[in-house]
């Protein structure tokens, strides 16, 4: 048994556009997809719906699990569940987490993305990938796409 902390991230699509957030957190700033922590006793699906609503004003439906990012650090496994959906309602509203807007998916690599978001995006978009796994190698963090 190991201690685990779950978070989530959701790629919301509308044709060729996706919702992005310019995250203002010091520990992971930059442009990414909305998401956040799973609360104790909360289902993973309910957590991603809640986090998207809090950060974007949108209510998503039927988010589909499409991958995971995980690593082990300080006695805890961290797992970020990746979801995607094209079913939503509402209007975009920025929050204290950061500014949100619709961006062309193909334009994302040109923006100031959060750390490793460019490769994480591959897990969201490539059907043969399902995991972004960080590990320590010779004292440095490296990752594999699986």
Summary, kept brief:
This protein has 146 residues and is of the alpha+beta class. The chain contains two helices and ten strands; from the N terminus they run βββαβββββαββ.
Protein model, in words:
It is a single chain. This protein has 146 residues and is α+β, with helices and mostly antiparallel strands. The chain has one domain (3-145): Nucleoside Triphosphate Pyrophosphohydrolase, CATH 3.90.79. It is built from two helices and ten strands. The strands form two sheets. Strands 1, 2, 3, 5, 6, 8, 9 and 10 form an eight-stranded mixed β-sheet that branches.
Stretches where pLDDT falls below 50 for ≥5 residues? none
Count of runs of 4 or more consecutive helical residues: 2
- SS elements, strand count: 10
In CATH, the homologous superfamily goes by the name Nucleoside Triphosphate Pyrophosphohydrolase
Query: What is the name of the CATH topology?
Result: Nucleoside Triphosphate Pyrophosphohydrolase
Give the strand content: over 45%
Average per-residue pLDDT, rounded, comes to 96
End-to-end CA span: 23 Å
Provide the CATH architecture: Alpha-Beta Complex
Identify the CATH class: Alpha Beta
Helical amount: 10-25%
Task: Assign the structural class, choosing from mainly alpha, mainly beta, alpha/beta, alpha+beta, or little secondary structure.
Answer: alpha+beta
> Could you state the order of secondary-structure elements as H and E?
EEEHEEEEEHEE
Rg for CA atoms: 15 Å
Main sheet overview: 8 strands, mixed
Shape: globular
How many separate domains make up the residues?
Answer: 1
């Amino acid at each position: 048994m190991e201690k685990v902390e779950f978070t989530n991230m959701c790629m919301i699509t509308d044709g060729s556009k996706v919702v992005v957030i310019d995250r203002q957190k010091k520990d992971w700033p930059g442009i990414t997809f909305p998401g956040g922590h799973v609360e104790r006793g909360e289902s993973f699906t309910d957590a991603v719906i809640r986090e998207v609503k809090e950060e974007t004003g949108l209510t998503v439906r039927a988010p589909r699990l499409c991958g995971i990012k995980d690593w082990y650090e300080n006695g805890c496994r961290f797992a970020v569940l990746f979801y995607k959906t094209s079913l939503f309602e509402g209007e975009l509203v920025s929050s204290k987490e950061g500014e949100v807007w619709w961006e062309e998916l193909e334009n994302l690599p040109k923006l100031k993305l959060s750390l490793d978001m460019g490769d994480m995006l591959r897990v969201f978009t490539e059907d043969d990938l399902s995991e972004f796994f960080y590990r320590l190698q010779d004292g440095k963090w490296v990752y594999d796409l699986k």
